[in-house]
Design a protein that fits this description.
The structure holds two protein chains of two kinds.
Chain A: H1 2-35, H2 42-66, H3 74-98, H4 105-116, H5 131-158, H6 165-173, H7 178-202, H8 207-218, H9 236-249, H10 253-261, H11 264-269, H12 271-290, H13 297-312, H14 326-338, H15 351-369, E1 378-379, E2 382-383, H16 386-413, H17 419-430, H18 449-463, H19 467-493
Antiparallel strand pairs in A: 1-2
Helix pairs in contact in A: 1-2, 1-3, 1-5, 3-4, 3-19, 4-5, 4-18, 5-6, 5-7, 5-8, 7-8, 9-13, 12-13, 12-14, 16-17, 16-18, 17-18
Chain B: H1 3-7, E1 13-14, H2 16-41, H3 48-68, E2 69-70, H4 79-104, H5 112-123, H6 139-167, H7 172-178, H8 189-215, H9 221-232, H10 250-263, H11 267-275, H12 280-285, H13 287-310, H14 315-330, H15 351-363, H16 376-394, E3 402-404, E4 407-409, H17 411-439, H18 443-454, H19 475-489, H20 493-504
Parallel strand pairs in B: 1-2
Antiparallel strand pairs in B: 3-4
Helix pairs in contact in B: 2-3, 2-4, 2-6, 3-4, 4-5, 4-6, 4-20, 5-6, 5-19, 6-7, 6-8, 6-9, 8-9, 8-10, 8-11, 9-10, 10-14, 13-14, 13-15, 16-17, 17-18, 17-19, 18-19
Classes of the chains: A mainly alpha, B mainly alpha.
């Protein structure tokens, strides 16, 4: 009995590693092919090609041995996702190091985590990078986005106990069959990317830039091929495409599917969407009012919309040097913390959780002056169970705790950060957005080794929505403790 | 014996709200008279008329209200009526309490909102001040300022054992079980007795701190009384601009630290400690107290190490400042010990240290004391709920009851505590946003200011640290902060009910 479950666990782990390697091989091979005609950076090309081929063969072996394991429990999904993401980060960090793109291991880990967790942070100077590296980075973000979607829409509903609110309507919106749902998701994601690509292309971006940016827009990743991000194109049309693209990236994919299927009544019923759009409109108005850039009114509106969209969807594109004066910095941090909708590639606390918290507090307040009142909490017409609410509070507490802890560690690691900077940076990495609110923490700033590790862990924990990591950490420590207890018992009985 | 029989006067009109307000105003009167006498006797300034006039107004209003009203038998049956009492008593006391400042010219009449701020800060035991130069004022006025905090402390003790537990939200109902009285659904006569015995403890603690301080060199009797009053209330007002730093004495700081630490502890526990035979056990049994001690000790140690090793402050100074400031913040007192040479200003400490301080400011003291904040027992239950969630990840069908000591806590109570924590954080966010967005305050100043006000702390980080005052904030911001102080002091839900009750019932029956 024990041996079979051990075997199953081993199979799960091998499967997770195989998946990570498979993704890496896909990304590496594609990016090495892009480099092919260029002879200037042979080392990069060779590294990518060799890494791709070896990863592909290893992944083939692993997946063949493990087959696709039958996953039924949430805990198994947690292990698979944690092992895959960590293995992916480590192996792509090695690729970065061998290709000579990054010089130190901690910086490589940081760059790799920024890729797969769709965070827009990097210490690299984009203009000096080979084109294959650009493709590698943006494709990593794109794949990271796809994996997030799979986790939410495919993996989570399989497990017996649903964990996110979105999983409730994943079954209703997409097909019931897992394979078909996976196909639908991929097609939808791919078509969004293509539409964004066409948008960028028509707005006047070059083909290569348009490809890279469409990858990082649809995944709410935010890495750019230019040093000044979207701002370096200096084109209103491109900014509009980016804004709309980010907005779509922060949407629940299920809603886009409903649009595709023309079920508009279902969309109208969705209260999460209404809240998302409300926050977007409100924050746009606040930025419009407060971000004084000295341009014409309409330009300022566009700018405000861009900022709001970039922050709320946790993409992290920048269109100009944002001057977050003290007046808006609190609002910016709050919007950053809220993040995208459930079932989107955006990170953060999640609009659905915010909605549930608001409704929960309303109920608590009602109960305080009318103790006998009975009030169910409904989101988009579906009742939320008490169990879900308990989990929600656990999530909220851990969220605040992790951001505060991250800020604490960051400020310990680098003395020059002030309080606002360290909180902004920790939050921004945790919600997988990227740049902090001030220039001391924006894209292109290098950190020391400890900060890099702290930031990478924040990104990974944030991307996996806390609980998988918490589970795996607890599980491994628990096993450790159990082992010790078992050992002690044995000695006693002897 | 019913409440009505013990307190009622035979007035022609029936109104419990006005009757209790009258009682409260009568209680304020001796304080005003004593302050007036001190002002009269001292040779610095002579604004005693301001205090005596206020005393007269307070006394006359109190007597009028008492003689004109009576309390009906069923007056406190409805929770809403109880809140009407609390809210109108607050409003009345703040209005009367601000009169001495206005009459004596500490604040011009055009700045009446500052006078209100100072009074609210006093009665809520916060200790944030908007007086530019404290030492320029007369001794009597300053004594009144200290007394507002002491009265506030008395008030919060009564609230803690009588009104708040009956509210049944935010986990306060659990506290009813721990108090020497028993579970109370309404304002019961017995809980009033409890409150009285706790007042005795409160009075004793104040006297003890006064004596200890007075024995030390450099401290006059007046200084000792003034600082003992605000220490016992965990308020934080001082009669000097540089607060405790004025004395520049480690011994004074030690006495104040002991006082602050003691007064952030549940007064029920102290009462039990003093009355029961095996007193020491009362402390070891209280898990909330143990957690409070652990947190304070841990943060003192961390802050000391950070200051010593990273900010390279010398060992002695680092230990002295860490101990004093951490206890001052953990107990939500907010005294400062910045010496004349500028040493001891925690705003200048490292970022990591300041994050720890922010955490302390949010948590605050224990329930049933005069300290403010989210309260340690809520943190305790929040952490246990979190641990339960993590355990459920492993065994999703497991049963993991949440226990405090030996008692299991009901799901419903846990939910209301967790709801309270969310609401607390939400209000801090709302406060920060409104301060930064509409009034252009600095982010950290606004955030720490909101936390400081919600937790009834006193000083904040950023620009409003221990060396400056809340005049750093815009005039309108001070209004928002004063509102947060009241909300924090009355455990959030009570304020909501207060607002409802302001409109709900100020019924006067013939």
């Amino acid at each position: 009995m024990i041996s079979t479950s051990n075997f199953e666990a081993k199979r799960l782990r091998v499967f997770a590693v195989g998946v990570a390697l498979g993704l890496l091989s896909f990304i590496s091979i594609v990016s090495s092919l892009i480099q092919y005609p260029d002879s200037s950076s042979t080392r990069v090309f060779l590294t990518f090609l060799l890494a791709g081929i070896s990863a592909a063969s290893l992944s083939f072996l692993f997946l063949r041995w493990s087959k696709i394991p039958k996953v039924t429990k949430a805990s198994e999904i947690f292990s698979i996702s944690v092992i895959s993401i960590i293995f992916f980060i480590v192996s792509s960090a090695i690729v970065y190091l061998i290709a000579g793109i990054v010089s130190t291991p901690d910086a490589a880990i940081w760059e790799a985590s920024a890729g797969i967790t769709t965070t827009a942070v990097s210490s690299l100077e984009p203009n000096s990078l080979a084109s294959s590296v650009h493709i590698f980075r943006s494709l990593t973000q794109w794949v990271g986005g796809l994996c997030t979607l799979c986790l939410v829409f495919v993996a989570t509903p399989i497990s017996s106990r649903d964990d996110t609110a979105s999983s409730g309507y994943a079954e209703k919106i997409f097909s019931r069959s897992i394979k078909q749902r996976l196909n639908e998701l991929t097609i939808l994601y791919l078509s969004i990317t293509i539409v964004i690509f066409l948008g960028y292309f028509l707005a006047g971006m070059g083909v290569f830039d348009a490809i890279c940016h469409s990858f990082t827009t649809s995944s709410t990743g935010g890495l750019s091929t230019r040093a000044l991000s979207i701002g370096s194109f200096d084109s209103p049309a491109i900014e509009w495409v980016a804004t709309i693209g980010m907005l779509v990236g922060g949407l629940n994919l299920g809603i886009l599917w409903l649009v595709w299927k023309r079920k508009f009544t279902d969309i109208r019923k969705n209260s999460e969407l209404r809240l998302y759009l409300l926050i977007l409109v409100l924050s746009t108005c606040i930025f419009w009012w407060k971000l004084d850039t000295g341009f014409a009114v309409f330009t300022e509106l566009r700018n405000a919309f861009f900022v709001a969209s970039s922050l709320l969807s946790t993409t992290g594109y920048v269109n100009m040097g944002w001057e977050f004066t003290s007046g808006v910095s609190a609002v910016a941090l709050l919007i950053l913390a809220i993040g995208g909708m459930a079932g989107s590639t955006g990170g953060g606390f999640g609009v659905h959780r915010l909605l549930e918290i608001i409704k929960y507090l309303r109920r608590e307040l009602t109960l305080s002056y009318r103790p006998s009142a009975v009030r169910a909490i409904k989101v988009s017409g579906e009742e939320i169970e008490q169990r879900e609410l308990d989990k929600l509070h656990g999530y909220t507490a851990t969220f605040i705790f992790i951001v505060a802890g991250g800020a604490f560690l960051l400020s310990l690691a680098s003395q020059h950060l002030n309080l606002a900077d360290s909180i902004g940076l920790a939050l921004s990495s945790f919600v997988t957005s990227g740049p902090g609110l001030t220039t001391a923490t924006s894209v292109g700033v290098e950190h020391n080794a400890v900060s890099n590790i702290v930031l990478s862990s924040l990104m990974v924990v944030g991307r996996l929505s806390i609980f998988p990591i918490a589970y795996v950490v607890l599980f491994s420590t628990r096993n450790l403790r159990l082992g010790l207890v078992g050992f002690r018992r044995k000695t006693v009985s002897d | 014996m019913k409440l009505s029989q013990r307190f009622s006067t035979e007035g022609p009109y029936e109104s419990v709200t006005l009757n209790v307000l009258g009682l409260a105003l009568l209680l304020l009167t001796p304080g005003l008279i004593i302050s007036g006498a001190i002002e009269w006797l001292s040779n610095t300034s002579h604004n005693e008329s301001a205090l005596f006039v206020s005393a007269t107004i307070s006394c006359v209003a109190g007597l009028l209200l008492r003689t004109l009203t009576s309390v009906a038998d069923d007056a406190t049956e409805r929770p809403m009526a109880v809140f009407s009492v609390v809210s109108w008593t607050w409003v009345g006391c703040v209005l009367i309490g601000s009169l001495p400042y206005l009459f004596s010219g500490v604040f011009a009449w055009s700045n009446f909102d500052d006078a209100l701020f100072e009074t609210i800060s006093g009665f809520s035991c916060t200790g944030s001040t908007v007086i530019e130069n404290i030492e320029a004022n007369g001794r009597g006025i300053l004594l009144w300022r200290q007394l507002t905090q002491w009265y506030g402390g008395m008030g919060i003790i009564v609230l803690a054992v009588t009104v708040l537990p009956s509210l049944g939200v935010g986990g306060l109902q659990l506290m009813a079980a721990e108090s020497p009285g028993q579970k109370s659904d309404k304002l019961k006569s017995k809980t009033i007795d409890t409150a009285k015995s706790l007042w005795v403890v409160y009075f004793g603690v104040t006297a003890a701190i006064t004596l200890l301080l007075w024995m030390l060199p450099k401290v006059s009797l007046y200084d000792a009384v003034a600082h003992a009053l605000s220490t016992a209330a965990t308020g934080g007002f001082s009669t000097y601009n540089s607060s405790i730093g004025y004395f520049d004495s480690f011994l004074v700081e030690l006495v104040i630290v002991a006082g602050m630490f003691l007064c952030a502890m549940n007064f029920n526990l102290q009462y039990k400690f003093l009355t029961s035979k095996r007193g020491t056990k009362t402390f070891s049994k209280s898990s909330e107290w143990k957690l409070y001690v652990k947190i304070t000790g841990f943060v003192v140690l961390c802050v000391f190490l950070l200051n010593w090793l990273i900010d390279s402050i010398s060992v002695g100074v680092a230990f002295r400042d860490s101990l004093f400031n951490v206890v001052a913040l953990a107990s939500s007192t907010g005294f400062g010990n910045v010496r004349p040479d500028g040493i001891g200003d925690f705003v200048l400490w490292g970022t990591a240290t300041q994050i720890l301080l922010l955490f302390l400011m949010t948590v605050g003291g224990t329930f049933g004391s005069t300290a403010g904040g989210m309260k340690t027992f809520r943190l305790q239950i929040g952490l246990k709920a979190l641990a339960k969630e993590l355990k459920l990840l492993r065994h999703s069908t497991g049963e993991y009851p949440i226990k405090v000591g030996k008692d299991e806590i009901e799901e419903k109570d846990v939910a209301s505590i967790v709801g309270f924590i969310s609401l607390f954080i939400l209000l801090v966010i709302v406060g920060t946003i409104s301060l930064t967005l509409f009034l252009n305050e600095d982010l950290i100043t606004a955030l720490s200011g909101s936390i400081s006000a919600m937790s009834n702390m006193g000083p904040a980080l950023g620009e409003a640290g221990p060396t400056t005052n809340f005049l750093e904030f815009e005039r309108a911001s001070r209004g928002i902060l004063a509102a947060l102080m009241v909300i924090g002091r009355l455990e959030i839900y009570a304020v909501l009910l207060m607002f409802l009750s302001l409109f709900d019932r100020l019924t006067i029956k013939k």
